Amino acid sequence: MNNQKQQKPTLTGQRFKTRKRDEKERFDPTHFQESIVQGLNQTGTDLEAVAKFLDASGAKLDYRRYAETLFDILVAGGMLAPGGTLSDDMTRTEFCLFRAQEDLETMQAYAQVFNKLIRRYKYLEKGFEEEIKKLLLFLKGFTESERNKLAMLTGILLANGNISASILSSLFNENLVKEGVSAAFAVKLFKSWIAEKDINSVAGSLRKVGMDNRLMELFPANKRSCEHFSKYFTDAGLKELSDFARNQQSIGARKELQKELQEMMGRGDPQKEIIAYTREEMKKANLSEQAMISIIWTSVMSCVEWNKKEELVTEQAIKHLKQYSALLKAFTSQGLSELSLLLKIQEYCYDNIHFMNSFQKIVVLLYKADVVSEEAILKWYTEAHLAKGKSVFLEQMKKFVEWLKNAEEESESDEEEAD
Question: Superkingdom of the source (predicted)?
Fold first, then answer.
């Protein structure tokens, strides 16, 4: 056994050779660009051949590292400098999206090229979305024809779910909006999207990313109204989009109104003030009385913490609704409004299990307070009720409805005798 003290290694003067794989490769897209441009020049306008070339090249070229360069070339024919102009002293190709024919069929064929490429190399998906966002910010640097082609392509890609609608946030850029570039681009984009799918596809995708209420931002602040939006897109042949935006604004206005009403009730504001405010907002938002009574009911029922015990919640609800009967009465001047309220109450009692046995007592209270009439109750009972909890609620109302019918018959009989 060797008892000699082992000599400790020293660091001084020692050099470790860096492994080749650990060396950081310098970012130099020149060779990559030359290879892609050469391939595109050889395949020309044959987009099937382009797709095959791109598929094969992914095995030899570093798509992951040079994704932006790749997409710049496919769209603009070369690398783009900030602002959207082609970089100087770089190899370019005429066989790209911007030099293609400006028609929907050609753009659909280009969409297929991008779709095949990204399906083959999934890691390019995120980089492609970033590229589209960047291109939208560069719109001012492109010609009108280039913008139109990009708009059509983007609409097709959105329709087919190849990219997320979140890319549209680039169109809200202040400079693009101010000069009208965003709105004009959006016309072409939404036309190709709807041609490829339909307005439901647009609505679903926009809602998914919270863009459904932001379309007004395509216009400068002084033109950001539902009227201007509607006229602009209707004149451009996109009435479906105008109707969708109008509907979204109405939904947004209803939510805001409901929130404000809840706050007013929470503060204990006088009902006269609440009624006056509600009438004003109803007029502003062009809401019907039927729509308004639904909002009021939801606000009234949302501004209180309900007891979890079923036997106590009915008593609490009656007390609470008595307090707001004047407000409910102010917005049930029409038979349809009364019916809308009854349907809303039925829906609420069904959706909130603790209220299942409260329905009849709530309706009787509102009848006594002149909020709903016997005509509305009888119409609800005989034909206009919802399917939700139908058997339970009809059974609850049976005796009261019989009493109403008897009272009506007696009243008619008295009138006949008087005559």
Answer: Eukaryota
User: In degrees to the nearest 10, what's the CA dihedral of 320, 322, 327, 329?
Assistant: 140
What is the b/e burial string over 326-342, where b = at least 16 CB atoms within 10 angstroms of the residue's CB?
ebbebbbeeeebbbbbb
pLDDT exceeds cutoff 90 at 412 = no
- Choosing from 211, 244, 278, the residue where a domain stops is 211
pTM, 2 dp: 0.67
Q: Cβ contacts of residue 169 below 8 Å, gap of 6+?
A: 133, 211
| Residue 5, domain member (yes or no) | no
My answer on whether 184 and 289 are in the same domain is no
Close Cβ partners of 271 (under 8 Å, ≥ 6 residues apart): 324, 326, 327
Q: Is 294 helix (H, G, I), strand (E, B) or coil?
A: helix
What burial class does residue 190 get, using C-beta atoms within 10 Å of its C-beta: 0-12 exposed, 13-18 middle, 19+ buried? buried
Instruction: List the domain range (segments joined by +) for residue 155.
Output: 27-211
pLDDT digits (tens, 9 = 90+) for 368-399: 999 999 999 999 999 989 999 999 999 999 99
